[in-house]
Design brief:
The protein is mainly α. 79% of the residues lie in helices and 0% in strands. Helix 3 packs antiparallel against helix 4.
């Protein structure tokens, strides 16, 4: 619906109606493969990289002699690990996001491979430029959101476990 509204310029109601009508046609599922790649792989990377970064930061604190956890540690560790996780996940998943959007926004029925080739060709054969165009803007939103999200998660988890 979002892509339909952005590309065609329809209202939310019109875009929703068009997408709902199209759900039962073959074109209604355009970009599903790229969407699964965009959501599946990076989300796994996101959680794994968060846990790795959190573990490394905690280990570093203990090696430097800081064995007591302070409020600053409780805030800094999940925020830094969350920022790292968002960056890592989007570096892995951004090409799939770009491919998915292009497939859904385009009028053709090009698949993942053809769309990838098109993006690279449009950038003069520069793979990184072709598949990562707009990544900086994505990171400006995703890094703070992930940092705050993981801080919230850790704060709530700590509060719930302290009540048990």
């Amino acid at each position: 619906m979002k892509v339909t509204q952005q590309v065609v310029g329809q209202s939310v109601t019109s875009a929703t109606t068009e997408v709902c009508r199209g759900m039962f046609s073959s074109s209604g599922w355009k970009g599903l493969g790229a969407t699964l790649l965009r959501d599946g792989i990076p989300h796994g990377v996101w959680f794994v990289s968060y846990e790795c970064a959190k573990t490394k930061l905690t280990d570093y604190r203990s090696r430097t002699g800081n064995t007591t956890t302070t409020t600053a540690d409780d805030i800094a560790t999940p925020m830094l690990a969350g920022a790292f996780a968002a960056t890592t996940a989007w570096v892995v998943g951004y090409p799939f996001d770009l491919i998915k959007t292009r497939i859904q926004a385009g009028g053709s029925s090009a698949g993942i491979y053809a769309t990838t080739k098109l993006l690279i060709d449009e950038s003069g054969g520069r793979v990184i430029h072709g598949l990562y165009k707009g990544l900086t803007l994505k990171l400006l939103r995703a890094v703070p959101a992930s940092a705050i999200g993981f801080l919230t998660y850790e704060t709530v988890a700590k509060a719930l476990t302290s009540r048990s």
